[in-house]
Amino acid sequence: MKKHIVLLFTVIISSLFTVQQAYAQEQNLKDVSQKIEKLTEGLVGRIGVAAQEIGGDEVIAINGDETFVMASTYKVAIAATVLDRVDKGELSLDQLVEVPQDMYVTGEIAIAETFPHPGIKLSVANLIEVMITESDNTATDVCMGLAGGAAAVTKNLHRLGITDFRVDRLTTEILRDFYGLPGKATPEVAMEAFKNNPALAATQIDRNMDFEADPRDHATPLAMLKLLLAIDSGTAMSAESSKFLLGVMSRTRTGAGRLKGLLPKGTPVAHKTGTVGGVANDVGYITLPDGRRFAIAVFTNSSETPSADRDRAIAEVARALFDFYYLKP
What distance in Å separates the CA atoms of residue 304 and residue 296, rounded to the nearest whole number? Predict the structure, then answer.
């Protein structure tokens, strides 16, 4: 009889401990979410966050199921679809691809501005490299063609069970719609438009609510997080392709003040930024000092604040989550 009483007591204590642990976990997640909201208040118009430790099951989300303009972060989905075709043997990383001048897209650092003469051929690997590391728009639109088009990218996302994620347009079409250009955003068309309307330059960092209201090329933070986890786990592509893409993302040269901005010097970050108008985004993977990693997606839209404040908001999110994951018991 005493054995049964002791066993029952042990079960009750164990159950209470489990409930207490679950409550503590829930409280910790709530605390870090509130901390993030407080840290980013006034720095951006609207923020969406989703993060998860690799191998863990706790998801931290703020407005995680709301849709946001992805801007150039959607290039991760394009790269994933191209690499899926590489895994199937339909493409190879060393395959040379012509980059015709009629596909040139304007951009701050771009193939179009570096190579003004015809005759450019780049390997699939190099196209993905500059699409991610430099956010090159010309390379992106060529990669979109290699992926099979926007519909094929969206179909690949659906294959992975990711539904709140739309890929609809080439970058030349996105920029055309954002700036209200008369045609695709070629260097010539953009140059002429900016020449005729100097005020257009200011709109590069101004919010554009009509553009943001267009549901095309939107995703939720949770959907982007799901893609990042699928890439890392080998669900979205082979282990070899995953290693290749994460290596490329680790060499990203844009957005030094975003996810990386407040992290300890030398912290490994593999990421992809996105910027247009009042939109500043950054998504990727952060490695903790003990080798553990977490995936993170931070979207910000509708901002009227200076660009430095938008970057700071993303940096604050990354640092808060870095501390949370590293210091949690």
Answer: 24
How far apart are alpha carbons 6 and 41 in whole angstroms? 52
CA–CA distance, 132 with 123 (Å, rounded to integer): 14
User: Judging by DSSP bridges, how do beta strands 269-276 and 279-287 pair with one another?
Assistant: antiparallel
SS3 248: helix
Model confidence over 120-148: pLDDT tens digits?
999 999 999 999 999 999 999 999 999 99
Question: What end-to-end distance do the CA atoms of the chain give, in Å?
Answer: 38
User: CA-to-CA distance for 9 and 6, rounded, in angstroms?
Assistant: 5
Q: Which residues of the chain have pLDDT under 70?
A: 1-27, 108-109, 329
283 - beta bridge partners?
272, 297
**Domains, the chain, ordered by start:** 44-327 (3.40.710.10)
* Nearest Cα residue to 259 out of 305, 318, 301: 318
How much is the pTM?
Answer: 0.91
Check the CA dihedral 167-168-173-177 and report its sign.
negative
Regarding beta strands 46-53 and 59-62, do their DSSP bridges make them parallel or antiparallel, or are they unpaired? Answer: antiparallel
Residue 56, phi then psi, degrees to nearest 5: -95, 180
3-state secondary structure of 65: coil
Number of helical H runs and strand E runs in the chain:
12, 9
| Cβ atoms of residues 54 and 294 within 8 Å | yes
